[in-house]
Design brief:
It contains six helices and seven strands; from the N terminus they run E-E-E-E-H-H-H-E-E-E-H-H-H. It is of the alpha/beta class. The chain folds into two domains: 3-81, no CATH class; 91-208, Metalloproteases ("zincins"), catalytic domain (Zincin-like, 2-Layer Sandwich). A four-stranded mixed β-sheet has the order 1-2-4-3, with helices on one face. Strand 1 and strand 2 (12-21) form a beta hairpin. Helix 3 (91-113) packs across helix 4 (166-178) and helix 4 (166-178) packs across helix 6 (200-208). The chain starts with a strand and ends in a 12-residue tail after the last helix. The structure holds zinc ion. Residues 175, 179, 185, 219-220 line the site of zinc ion.
Length: 220
């Protein structure tokens, strides 16, 4: 049974559950999807009394209080914007979501590439992406990135694209399509992205804020 504890940081109470794990080698803090905090503590460390471990664990939480407050806010914001879908879908859901994501990205790629297809403002109608050939389009459950483009021009997108707001989805698709012309992240690449989506920076910032998925997930 996990023990409930709390600390006060900047007059804010941060509650956490203490889990004693026989397998844990070190003290670890985790912030879960809904903002719940879990402190994992080694059940036993040779030469150290349990009271000493507990004192060390509590100091660990205090030392990370500012970081915790930030992570809890993020998690709460995220669970509001993306109710329970993002991290908790099971294998059955995945197949269904993958199909939906594939339809979505195929449709978007076609819209940006087909000559003359209408695109939402302020995306450039006569963009350099019109008419460019691309390889296969795939959707994956990637852990570390939102999308990628291979040397052969195959495009792959994270299934979580489904949960992004449309302007951010568009940015992601345009980003990968621009790699068909610039296979790098050089200033030339970013100039190209800006030419297609003049307000791409705002969309990129939203994508990288961690609001829609794991922090640190790259664009690819
Ligand atoms: Zn990229």
């Amino acid at each position: 049974m996990d023990q409930k504890k709390s600390i006060t940081h900047d007059s804010r109470v941060i509650a956490y559950a203490v889990h004693r794990s026989p397998r844990a080698k070190r003290i670890r803090l985790t912030v879960r999807g809904g903002g719940e905090v879990l402190l994992t503590v080694p059940a036993r460390v040779r030469w150290i009394t349990r009271a000493a471990i507990d004192a060390r664990a509590e100091r660990f939480v205090r030392d990370h209080a500012a970081w915790l407050a930030r992570k809890i806010d993020q998690a709460e914001r995220r669970s509001r914007t993306m109710p329970h879908l993002l991290e908790q879908f099971g294998p059955g859901d995945y197949a269904r979501l993958k199909d939906r994501a594939l339809v979505l990205v195929r449709e978007k790629v076609a819209r940006f590439v087909a000559p003359g297809a209408p695109v939402p403002a302020p995306i450039e109608e006569r963009s350099p992406l019109r008419g460019i050939p691309h390889g296969m389009i795939a959707v994956r459950n990637q852990r570390t990135c939102w999308g990628s483009c291979s040397r052969k021009g195959n495009l792959s997108f994270n299934v979580r694209i489904l949960f992004l707001p449309e302007p951010v989805q568009d940015y992601l698709v345009v980003h990968e399509l621009c790699h068909l012309l610039e296979f790098n992240h050089s200033p030339r690449f970013w100039a190209l992205v800006a030419k297609v989506i003049p307000d791409y920076l705002e969309r990129r910032r939203a994508l990288r804020s961690g609001e829609f998925g794991r922090l640190g997930m790259g664009e690819g």
